[in-house]
Amino acid sequence: MSEDFQIVAIDGGAASGKSSTARGVAAAANFLHVDTGSHYRALTLRALTEGLSPQKGTALDRFLAGLRFETEVRGQCACLRLNGDVPDAADIRSDAVNAAVSDFAALPAVRDAVRAYQRDQAAVARKHGFKGLVMEGRDIGTVIFPEADLKIFLEADASTRAARRKDEGQTDTIDNRDRIDSTRATAPLTAAPDAVRIDNSNIPLDGVVAEVLRLLQQRAPGSYANVSAASACSERNRPR
Ligand code: CDP
Ligand code: CDP
Q1: pLDDT attached to residue 224
Q2: pLDDT tens digits, one per residue of 150-198
Q3: What number does the ligand 2 atom closest to the CA of 136 have?
Q4: At what angle do helices 18-29 and 205-219 cross, to 10 degrees?
Q5: SS3 assignment, position 87
Q6: Which of 19, 36, 98 is the pocket-test mutation for ligand 1 (most atoms within 8 Å of CB)?
Q7: In the chain, how many domains are there?
Q8: 220 vs 218, higher pLDDT
Q9: Count of CB atoms situated within 10 Å of the CB of 121
Q10: Is the CB of 178 under 6 A from ligand 1?
């Protein structure tokens, strides 16, 4: 990586705090934020709409070959435009998508379809003048950016994560998704050996963001010295 452009990989299970942490870091450090879960969700939504299941081998291969991936940068968020459409956030977090996404994401062909697009987001970030990229998912530190400057593995205990999802009003079988995601053969959810593990069950969001910024600063002294975690997490700074 060049000295002035940094890549932060954030991985972890469902409701471990990845998106909120990544948003806070992006806002504070002027990084582009990429939520790779939204890629698998958008693909799943489209597949379900076309009547496909993860078992439909040939039809699924045809479907994957016909997908076109582009990025629409909105604020600090890189939104996936799939075949010309940025899907609605509520649609990709529907119960049907929650129930099917891990089965689609476990297929090597599905992961092959998104890998190059995800790696390309570093070039998108540079092109748009961001100082770095913060990408979150399950395999960012292990497969997509094993060369990332900083790898974070977020954890929170099961009851905290379930309570977080409930507070968001979502019906989501997070245990089931975590089980499928952790046990699949290709790119399972696991911490990279050099990832920093942060259990945030009892740490408020601004504290986690501050810790990630501190670790970033350690790696590039001086770059983020004036950034405060409070400003990082303010609603005003959240990408829309
Ligand atoms: O928001 P939440 O943590 O519940 O899930 P998400 O990040 O939106 O990811 C949805 C699903 O996509 C996960 O349960 C995984 O099956 C899959 N995923 C993946 O396989 N690899 C990634 N890098 C990101 C998500
Ligand atoms: O992206 P992921 O599914 O891992 O989690 P998230 O959507 O960032 O976080 C799930 C919920 O937990 C959100 O409502 C966050 O505000 C909350 N959260 C928290 O209370 N404390 C943290 N340290 C991190 C997240």
Answers
A1: 52
A2: 999 999 999 999 899 888 877 778 889 999 999 999 999 999 999 999 9
A3: 1
A4: 50
A5: coil
A6: 36
A7: 1
A8: 218
A9: 22
A10: no
The two structure tokens encoding residue 97: 């998508």
**Parallel/antiparallel/unpaired status of strands 196-199 and 132-137:** unpaired
**Which residue puts its alpha carbon closest to atom 23 of ligand 1?**
137
Ligand 1 pocket mutation pick from 181, 182, 200 by most atoms within 8 angstroms of CB: 181
How many angstroms does the Cα of residue 161 sit away from the middle of ligand 2?
A: 8
Residues 6+ apart with CB under 8 A from 141: 9, 11, 148, 151, 152, 153, 191, 192, 194, 195
- Whole-model pTM? 0.92
Task: Confirm whether 237 is domain-assigned.
Answer: no
Handedness of CA 140, 143, 147, 153 (dihedral sign): positive
Query: By alpha-carbon position, which residue is closest to atom 2 of ligand 2?
Result: 15
Report yes or no on 87 lying in a domain.
Answer: yes
The finding on whether 102 has its CB within 6 A of some atom of ligand 1 is yes
pLDDT at 100 over 80: yes
- Give the CATH number of the domain where residue 62 resides: 3.40.50.300
Q: What are the Cα distances from residue 97, in Å, to 17, 79, 157, 182?
A: 20, 18, 24, 18
CA distances from 192 to 12, 33, 103, 154, 210 (A): 11, 20, 23, 12, 21
Host domain of residue 13:
6-224
Query: Is residue 48 in a domain?
Result: yes
Band of the pLDDT at 65, cuts 50, 70, 90?
very high
Radius of gyration of the chain measured on its C-alpha atoms:
17
Residue 233 covered by a domain: no
